[in-house]
Design a protein that fits this description.
Blueprint lengths: L4 H10 L6 H7 L14 H22 L5 H12 L1 H10 L10 H5 L6 H19 L1 H12 L2 H8 L3 H11 L6 E8 L6 E7 L5 E6 L2 H19 L2
Antiparallel strand pairs: 1-2, 2-3
Helix pairs in contact: 2-7, 3-4, 3-7, 3-8, 4-9, 5-7, 7-8, 10-11
Length: 229
């Protein structure tokens, strides 16, 4: 089986040459495009999530040999969460090679966090099945790169950190206000404002309220820390 030009280019970005190219084709096929045999990427996504978890667990143990389980767990969660997988997928332009049904294409599926995160996990599984654990590990460590070393900061729950910042200064907890919501029901977009009693605030947009709250809280906290507040 010969891969299309876009998938050959994707292989170059992944750093893996497939002996069984049909695995990659399945990894980039969304359920909205799957045929009667259900040849989509959902089963690969299930496997890829587990492979990614093992790679990250080993990497974190090697990165900080003195860290406790309580310190490692939030770092692990930050590295394997769907949003991080989607960020990596965007960096390698995985969305450009996804095989989507018409409805997903029309609703911007190539840039949806959940869809990209699932596809990234499926690609990890495809590499694992094609080349074994060592091949998958090598690819994941390269693509996740500096995230592993810097995850101590990224692992902080932004809303919790912002609340602790406010309480330490005698303020009530931050308020999260929905500024707007637009887009179709199946692909909404929320703008949330994180606000403190002292008047400081930051707005962020995301595909879910929870994600927008986290982004807004993280950005506001970064501003406060930069200002030395």
């Amino acid at each position: 089986m010969k891969l299309a030009a876009d998938l050959q280019a994707l292989c170059t970005r992944l750093g893996h040459r497939f002996e069984r190219p049909e695995l990659l084709v399945r990894a980039v096929t969304h359920s909205s495009r799957a045929g009667i045999n259900r040849d989509d990427n959902q089963r690969l996504e299930f496997l890829g999530d587990r492979v990614l978890g093992l790679v990250m667990a080993q990497a974190l143990l090697a990165e900080d040999r003195g860290a406790s389980e309580g310190q490692l767990a939030p770092r692990f969660n930050a590295l394997v969460r769907k949003e991080t997988c989607a960020e990596v997928a965007l960096e390698i332009d995985l969305g450009a090679s996804l095989k989507l049904g018409r409805s997903e294409m029309m609703s911007g599926g190539r840039r949806k966090t959940a869809l990209l995160g699932d596809a990234m996990e499926a690609v990890i599984a495809a590499v694992y099945l094609d080349g074994g654990f060592d091949a998958a590990q090598k690819m994941v460590l390269r693509l996740w790169g500096k995230r592993i070393g810097s995850v101590k900061e990224d692992a902080r729950d932004a809303k919790t950190a912002l609340q602790e910042w406010a309480q330490a200064r005698g303020m009530p907890p931050p308020a999260y206000v929905e500024v707007s919501r637009d887009g179709p029901d199946h692909a909404p977009s929320f703008v949330i404002s994180a606000r403190l009693e002292n008047g400081r605030s930051f707005e962020a947009r995301a595909g879910s309220k929870r994600q927008a709250e986290q982004v807004a809280a993280k950005a506001l906290l970064a501003q406060l820390e930069q200002d030395g507040s």
